[in-house]
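Re: [help] complex structure
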Amino acid sequence: MTGADVLLLALGAVAVGAGALVVATRHLVRAGLWLVVCLGALAGDYLVLGAELVAWVQVLIYVGAVVVLLLFAVMLTRAPIGPSDDLDRPGWPAALIGAGSGLGLAVLLVDAFRWSRVALPATGTAERLGEQVFRSWVLPFEVLSVLLLAALVGAIVLSRPDIGRPGATPAAAPARPGRPAGPVEPARPVVAAAGDEGGRA
Amino acid sequence: MRPVIPYVTAALLFGLGVYGVLRRRNAVLVLMAVELMLNAVNLILVTADTTVRAALPHSGQVFALFVIVLAAAEIGVGLAIVLQLYRLRASVTVDDVPLAEAPAPATGAAADGGEGEK
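Output below.
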């Protein structure tokens, strides 16, 4: 057991413990906060494993953006103070499948690697990773940029109630000439926002 | 460095993610469990980068970066869907989502008309 092993064990225990609390806690907001602990421990794991850039990107994107977005969603939908009882469905099958897949994979990996030891390779700094990304993996990189654009457009279409719904457009189209066009168009977002506010309160 | 330690950590995290996806009813908590699974995969990729000597160096870490980008896109679209579901039904419980195809246009038009009139 070297120092790296001890660090990996400790960070792994923190990550698994926080992950268990994410899926087991009865407090909605605390689940998001335990997710921060789990992802932070994983970032530490990446640092020990020599993946420097991945660790900082993990902190930036996961802890900084994804968890904040998740907490936003919790607050925007329903954020009760205190524990809520209706978060889980009664599930022995879930525990069975989850434990089966997790422990099965663990047994498989333990059997594959035993107690072998490897030397840590060169640290994955931004320079080395950038060289790989822009030399060997340029095509996936470009495809990912297109995917991000598609996700952006998709999220906008989904969150706008007045576009993108095939059932709504033909129904709304005949109604428009009958009504005066001026007041209807600006009134819609105001009404929707008011309804949203009322639903949130 | 013993590679079995991060590998087993990743396997257990993946199992926890599967459990959370199957167990949770709140859609936001389901998304959190999905994040756990994606992170387990990332840990596997980064660890494999140290153990497997591939032809291209640091491929596993590059893949981990790609998976992080995919997760960011997924969470954006997923939360847009969740917020839209909450706007329509005032609840984000996964069990209440109607999956039947047939009555969807009628109820969708009715819900849209009601929402427009409100």
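Chain A has a mean pLDDT of 82.
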